[in-house]
Design brief:
Elements: H1 3-31, E1 34-37, E2 41-43, E3 47-53, E4 60-67, E5 88-91, E6 98-103, E7 113-119, E8 126-134, E9 150-152, E10 157-159, H2 164-167, E11 173-182, E12 188-189, E13 192-199, E14 205-210, E15 214-215, E16 220-228, E17 235-243, E18 246-255, H3 259-287, H4 302-308, H5 314-321
Parallel strand pairs: 2-8
Antiparallel strand pairs: 1-3, 3-6, 4-5, 4-7, 7-8, 9-11, 10-11, 11-16, 12-15, 13-14, 13-17, 17-18
């Protein structure tokens, strides 16, 4: 290639780089989450509009007003220094943008304050914007303690056990116990840990837990953090411990099935049909017509019961089953036993029945 050709190629590459530089800067800026506020200061009871871009598409975000925080340091106290009751959730659109109204509320700690936006699920991302709550106290930020570093010195374990309520579907709860040591050069005060619970291959759900106390350099402390699952949870879970963006330990947790719930539904499937059957039979028994005579007989009659008794002989049972009232011509006067054993035909000296007519002149 000639010298003039190389010069033309160099000029073309320089022009293209100048044209693509703003686009590259825009793409890089779009990848970083950002937050914008409609007002930089407002009083309690009013509201502001929080918008942003550069987030993941269809990401669930939580918007909070937090105290003792600046964008350069984030929120050192975690969500414990935020007005959690007045927070709002929002989902980004397909381009990673959002806009949401947020009521202004005083955080539990003094300002300087920020509007803190962070992802709830998936990869962690967060951004802050300076905000001033009018009329709220303002105090200097606590000194930074970057020299303090915590390390887990012992294996973690889960203390506690399930009870009767857990067997019937109450949320399983345990206590994560471990010992940490400060291997840094400065004290660590009120460290904020993140405890995550993951079921199977799913990503862990993180929850912030703050431990109250101070760990001096070279010292160690035994920590206990509560862990709780949702009601009816069962199967294999993994409890993770994170501090300073680094996972320190993981502990498996095998949660038993709440068999009390299964037993309850089995009893419901047995008792309800039986109760409906009894109610139906009672209704049928009440609405069906009564037999002649107005007396309703229940169960087996005496003759039938006598015939079915295994201890009675057939002749005895048949005799017991024959009621005296079934033979209208049989009366106590004509009983063979009462007549002294007389089995011959009746004679002329027997009393004449008043219903039998008498012929005149008959012998």
């Amino acid at each position: 290639m000639s010298a003039s050709g190389r010069v033309r190629w160099a000029v073309l590459v320089a022009v293209l780089s100048l044209l693509l530089a703003p686009l590259a800067g825009t793409a890089a800026a779009a990848d970083k989450p950002s937050v914008k506020l409609s007002k930089s200061q407002a009083g309690t009871g009013s509201s502001i509009t929080v918008s942003g871009g550069g987030w993941r598409e269809r990401a669930l975000l939580m918007i909070l007003i937090c105290g003792q925080a600046v964008p350069s340091r984030g929120v050192p106290g975690g969500t414990n220094s935020c007005a959690n009751a007045d927070g709002r959730a929002v989902t980004t659109d397909s381009k990673g943008r959002f806009s949401r109204k947020l009521p202004v509320a005083e955080p539990p700690v003094p300002c300087p304050c920020v509007v803190h936006v962070a992802t709830v699920t998936g990869a962690k991302a967060e951004a802050d914007a300076i905000f001033q709550v009018a009329g709220h106290a303002v105090e200097p930020l606590p000194a930074e303690t970057d020299g303090g570093r915590l390390s887990v010195l012992t294996d973690t374990r889960l203390d506690g056990s399930g009870g009767l309520l857990t067997w019937f579907g109450a949320p399983p709860a345990r206590t994560l116990v471990f010992t940490v040591g400060n291997v840094g050069t400065s004290a660590v005060k009120n460290p904020v840990f993140q405890v995550g619970t993951a079921h199977g291959v799913f990503a862990p759900q993180w929850e912030e837990q703050q431990w109250r106390g101070t760990i001096q350099p070279g010292k160690k402390a035994r920590l206990e953090l509560p862990v709780e699952l949702t009601g009816g949870a069962h199967g294999e879970y993994t409890v993770s411990l994170k501090y300073g963006g680094k996972v320190l330990a993981e502990q498996p947790w095998d949660v038993g099935r709440p068999w009390g719930v299964t037993l309850f539904w089995i009893l419901v499937c047995l008792v309800v049909p039986a109760a409906l059957f009894r109610i139906g039979m009672a209704v049928v028994d009440r609405v069906r017509p009564q037999p002649a005579g107005g007396i309703r007989h229940r169960g087996l009659r005496l003759p039938e019961l006598a015939l079915r008794l295994p201890g009675l002989k057939p002749s005895t049972a048949a005799h017991a089953a024959t009621p005296a009232s079934t033979l209208p011509w049989f009366s106590p006067d004509a009983d063979p036993g009462a007549a002294g054993g007389r089995l011959s035909a009746p004679h002329d000296d027997s009393p004449t029945s008043p219903t039998t007519p008498t012929r005149e002149g008959s012998p």
